[in-house]
Amino acid sequence: MHDSDFDVAGRTAIVTGASQGIGRAIAETLATGGANVAICSRSMDRVGPVAEEINDADDADGQAIAVECNVRERDQVQRLVDETVAEFGDIDVLVNNAGGEFVAPFEEISANGWQTIVDLNLNSTVHCTQLAGEVMREGSGGIIVNLSSVNGQHAAPGESHYGASKAAIIRLTETLAVEWAEHGIRVNCVAPGLIQTPGVAETLGIDSEAMPPREATDRRIGHAEEIADVVRFLASPAASFMNGETITAKGVPRAGNSMSQDLGLED
Ligand SMILES: CCCCC/C=C/C(=O)SCCNC(=O)CCNC(=O)[C@H](O)C(C)(C)COP(=O)(O)OP(=O)(O)OC[C@H]1O[C@@H](n2cnc3c(N)ncnc32)[C@H](O)[C@@H]1OP(=O)(O)O
Ligand SMILES: NC(=O)C1=CN([C@@H]2O[C@H](COP(=O)(O)OP(=O)(O)OC[C@H]3O[C@@H](n4cnc5c(N)ncnc54)[C@H](OP(=O)(O)O)[C@@H]3O)[C@@H](O)[C@H]2O)C=CC1
C-alpha cells in the first residue's frame, strides 16, 4: 500500500505578506503542520503578533519569526533571507504571497500606478525568488510557491496592471521550473478566485461577516484557509511530481472564470 506524504514538519518556510489574509493562513497552516516559518510584512506591529500567536498556539508544532520587510525593496528582502537562515539554518520553502492592487480603467492608471502594482506583485516575486533561490541552489534545493490569480489567467475590467503582473508570475513559474529543476527546486503557482481577506474587503468593500462554510459548493467567496491548504500540498512531498504548474482554486467552475463573475457582476 502507498502511504501518501503530505508532511511539512521540520521544513523552513518563508511566507511573505503574512500579517493578514491568505499569507497569514498559509503561515498558520504550515506551522500547524510542523514547519518553521519566517513571516514578513511592512510593519512589525502587524506581523509580530502573528508570529507570537503561532509560537503560543498549542496546535502549531513549528516556530515562527517575524521580520519587517517591504518586498518591493531588494535590500530588505536580503535581510529577510539572512535572518531566516540565521534563525533556522536553511530555506526549504518560499511562498511569494505579498501582493495587491487597486481597480482602475487602463487609461486612468498613471505610470507610477502601473509601476507600483508591477513592483508589488511581480518584481517582489523576482527579488524573493532570486535571493532565497540562491540559498536553495547552494543547499539541497527547495520548493517555491507563487501566488497568481484568476485575473492572471483571464481578463477582467479594471485589472490590466494586476492581471499583467499576475500573468507574468505564471510564466516566470513555468520558466524557473525548467531552469532550476537541475538544482532540485520545484516551482509552482496557485491562482485563487475571490477570497475573503482584509485586502479584498478594503479594495471592494465586501462585508467580512457571514462567510459561507467551506462545504458550500454554490457560487461563493473563498476562505483564506482554502488557499493555504493548496499551498501546503505544493510544499509537501505529495507534490513531488508537480513542477511549473498553476493550480486554480476558485470554487464552482464557470465559463469565463473572472473575479467579476464571482462577485455576480457578470454572468
Ligand atoms: C474584480 C475584483 C478583483 C479583486 C482582486 C483582488 C486582488 C487582491 O490582490 S486583493 C488583496 C490585496 N490587497 C490590496 O490590494 C490592498 C488594497 N490596496 C492598497 O493598499 C494599495 O492600493 C496598494 C498597496 C496596491 C498601493 O499602495 P501604495 O504603494 O501606498 O501606493 P500609492 O497610494 O502611493 O499610489 C501609487 C500610485 O498608484 C496610484 N493609485 C493608487 N490607487 C489608485 C486608484 N484607485 N486608481 C488609480 N490610481 C491609483 C496613485 O495615484 C499613485 O500614482 P501617482 O498619483 O501617479 O503617483
Ligand atoms: N484575496 C483574493 O481574492 C485574492 C488574492 N490573491 C493574491 O493573494 C495574495 C494575498 O492576498 P490577500 O491575502 O487578499 O491580501 P491582503 O491585502 O489581505 O494581505 C496582504 C498582505 O501582504 C502584506 N504586504 C502588502 N504589501 C507588502 C509589501 N510591499 N511587503 C511586504 N508585505 C506586504 C500585507 O501586510 P502589511 O500591510 O502589514 O505590510 C498583508 O499581510 C496577493 O498576492 C493577492 O494578489 C489572488 C487572487 C485573489
From TrEMBL:
The keyword Oxidoreductase applies. Its EC number is 1.3.1.38. Residues 11-183 form the Ketoreductase domain. Its main location: other. The keyword tRNA processing does not apply. InterPro entries: KR_dom, NAD(P)-bd_dom_sf, Peroxisomal_t2-enoyl-CoA_red, Sc_DH/Rdtase_CS, SDR_fam. It comes from the Archaea. It is an enzyme of class 1 (oxidoreductase). Keywords: Fatty acid biosynthesis, Fatty acid metabolism, Lipid biosynthesis, Lipid metabolism, NADP, Oxidoreductase, Peroxisome, Phosphoprotein. GO terms for biological process: fatty acid biosynthetic process. One of its GO terms (molecular function) is trans-2-enoyl-CoA reductase (NADPH) activity. Pathway: Lipid metabolism. It catalyses: (2E)-hexenoyl-CoA + NADPH + H(+) = hexanoyl-CoA + NADP(+); (2E)-octenoyl-CoA + NADPH + H(+) = octanoyl-CoA + NADP(+); (2E)-decenoyl-CoA + NADPH + H(+) = decanoyl-CoA + NADP(+); a (2E)-enoyl-CoA + NADPH + H(+) = a 2,3-saturated acyl-CoA + NADP(+). It is found in: Peroxisome. Participates in chain elongation of fatty acids. Catalyzes the reduction of trans-2-enoyl-CoAs of varying chain lengths from 6:1 to 16:1, having maximum activity with 10:1 CoA. Has no 2,4-dienoyl-CoA reductase activity. NCBIfam families: PRK07231.1. Interacts with PEX5, probably required to target it into peroxisomes. This is Peroxisomal trans-2-enoyl-CoA reductase. It comes from Natrinema salifodinae. The lineage of its organism: Archaea, Methanobacteriati, Methanobacteriota, Stenosarchaea group, Halobacteria.
